[in-house]
Amino acid sequence: MSRQIEKVKKYSNGSLPVSVQPCAVSEKSLELIKLAAWNAKAVYAADTTHMDRIAQLADFSGYKLTPHSESIDASLRDGTVKATSLRLLSPEKDSLPMLLVVAIRGSTSKRRDWTINFDDIGQGTDGAGFLDSNDCTYQVHGGYLECAKGMVEKVSEAISCILSNSEADHSVDRDIQLLFTGHSAGGAVASLLYAHMISSYTSTLANLHPRFTSIDCIVFGSPPVSKPGLTSYSQTSTFLSIINEGDPVPRMDKGFIESLLTIYISPMPAASVAWALPPMLLDNAGTIMVLKDGEQGLCTVPDDIDQKGIRAVLETTVFGNPRAHKMDMYLWKLGLVKTLF
């Protein structure tokens, strides 16, 4: 693996270009990003010792856990339902809303998870009937679309249960903000559920839209989901795709996998030349922001119109470090852990 990473770095497009620069992020937005990252890690709850080494909510936010939570188990047969954790957070300040976080787990080592990941990889399935078209036909990754459709009822039931229980004991006496999050494939499904909930379609999940003052989505290391890319439904809604430099999953489709395998079997380049990459078949969801090596904070292409600049960077840069995909790496770059695991 170290040899492969070294080889990728030898190519002139093996690292992010200088055009990707740090950008200003408000304290409020950064807090929401960190809350999303914390929950995206916590849903991988099999190894609870890792959570002991991660910053506590009080260390980086003005929120605390409430007794109200729900969980959804992954489907045992085909992986069409991903393990999901829902937590209601309470703010320390009266001026802030409650925060209900829906965190969807990414892929584990289980075969059923990867069956979904490689189902219809890089190809498009018509998203009609699930995503609002707005005179636009969405082509969606078939595996993630199937998964999102299978989770609508379960997620809406879990949300309704938390709302009902918190209202019964008078825990909720203020507005509630809803946040979808997830890492890897969990982020892809979270993006689709977010997009469905804000669409004009009627479903048990979409019908819950009026219960929340704001609906947001922040995902980490999420693979391409649709063509065109999914966007926020309003200027006040946060919809972000956070990508760590080198993480191959946000670029993952059949052509890119084959290209990485070709690099793997090729000799070390003698000179700094560019490695030719295939075009992206699907786009990443939301506004793309990058955690760049050697830079503090989040980065993007300045003055980028319609994200054409950052998408061009994704399409022409070799993201070839599988270690960069670990959620622990995202937490470390966001300052939520002092040392890597």
Automatic annotation (TrEMBL):
Which biological process, per GO, is one annotated for this protein? lipid metabolic process
Record-linked SUPFAM superfamilies: alpha/beta-Hydrolases
Q: What is this protein called?
A: Fungal lipase-type domain-containing protein
The family assignment reads:
Belongs to the AB hydrolase superfamily. Lipase family. Class 3 subfamily.
Residue span, Fungal lipase-type domain: 101-252
Q: Give the catalytic activity.
A: a monoacylglycerol + H2O = glycerol + a fatty acid + H(+); a diacylglycerol + H2O = a monoacylglycerol + a fatty acid + H(+)
Check the record and name the Pfam families matching this protein: Lipase_3
Q: CDD domains recorded for this chain?
A: Lipase_3
